[in-house]
Amino acid sequence: MRLTQKLCCSFTALCSLLLLTFTLLPIAHAQETTAAVEGTVKDATGATVAGAVIIVSSEQLIGTKTIATNQTGYYRFDNLPPGTYTIAVRAAGFAALKRDGLILQTGRIPTVDLNLSVGSEQTIVEVSTETPQIDVTSSRTQTTI
Q1: What domains can be seen in the chain, in order of their start residue?
Q2: What is the pLDDT of residues 73-93, one digit of tens each?
Q3: Do residues 92 and 121 make contact, with C-beta atoms less than 8 angstroms apart?
Q4: Residue 66: which residues within 8 A CB-CB, separation 6 or more?
Q5: How many angstroms separate the CA atoms of 69 and 54, rounded?
Q6: Residue 124 falls in which region: left (phi positive, over 0), alpha (psi -120 to 50) or beta
Q7: Residue 96 main-chain phi, psi, to 5 deg
Q8: How far apart are alpha carbons 144 and 129 in whole angstroms?
C-alpha cells in the first residue's frame, strides 16, 4: 500500500512538472531580440507616394537597409538591432527627407509616417527629434504684437 502511494505521488509530481514545462515553453521561445519600423510616405496633399526609396542607417546596423514603398506608400523594416536610427526618403519630384534620432526598441514597431514636400531631389529637408534647450532657472512671459 505504501509503495502505491509513493508511486502515485511521484506520478503526480512528474505530471505537474511536465505541465509547467510545456506551459512556460512558448513564453521562453517567443522573446523578441530585434526591432522594426513601419509607416506610409505621403505628399503635401496627403496622397501616398508609391516607389519612394527609404534608407535606414544606424551605428548598431552594419551598413544600411534600403526598401521601396509599395503601391499604397507603405514600408516596413524588420529585424533591426535596437538603437537610434536615421531614416532618409527619396522620390522623383520631391525634396529628399532625412529624419534623425528615431529610437527603436526591442519588440516594438513604431509607425513613422513621412511627409514629402514638392521640390527637386537636390533639396534635403532634415527633421531632428532633439529637444530644444529650455531655461528652467527663470520664468518670463513674453508677448509679441
Answers
A1: 35-128 (2.60.40.1120)
A2: 999 999 999 999 999 999 999
A3: yes
A4: 53, 54, 55
A5: 8
A6: beta
A7: -65, 145
A8: 27
